[in-house]
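Posting for a labmate who doesn't have an account.
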Amino acid sequence: MVTAIMQPYFIPYIGYFQMLNAVDQFVIYDNIQFIKSGWMHRNRLLINGKDEYISLPLRKDSYHLYVDQRYLSDIYAEEKRKILRKIQSYQKAPYFDDVFPLVSAILDFEDTNLFQFNYHSIKEINRYLDIDTPIIVSSTIDIDHDLKGQDKVIALCKALNTTTYINSIGGMELYDKEDFLKQGIKLQFIKTMPSEYQQFKNNFVPFLSIIDVMMFNDKQTLKSMLLEYELV
């Protein structure tokens, strides 16, 4: 059984969906601390030839809270209009008419809980990309949830009968292959290949939100791009 575990990112880049597509089961954290400088409430789009952030406004609250304890702020309706205006800069992209209604519906989701909002968006994009990997919410797994870091990952993997655990390439400094092997788990890291595609007439800007990838590529090309990675 091949497993991946990730935080609930806001309309993340293609590498997130490559990982989802590569495994038998995918765990999404709900009981993990919100990271202000992370990707749970923001991402990047191509605006006027340059990368630019879009961000979800959050209620002011303690940064020590878990992501499932954070909520969109009361100004979200106004900020949503700003995000949609930025996305409309893709109007001349070849697949705008397919992708804009999907993203608009995602942003119209009524639950203002940050975890539920992101979880819903990931499921909707999975449907568009024809990814059918089961997603399991971390808090529903019977482990000691006070564990941290690698110990918690290993506990989750063992509870799910994992034989191979795939982590993003950024975890190479955090996790030790020997420690996983001692628990009967093979650890691999997924490295996304920066496959270029035409972004209007601009120099290519890699690793933007999946929105950018979907705007410029048909579904068959997207399926191929989901396989453009290596495991190390």
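Reply:
Got it, the structure tokens are right above this. The chain has a mean pLDDT of 96.
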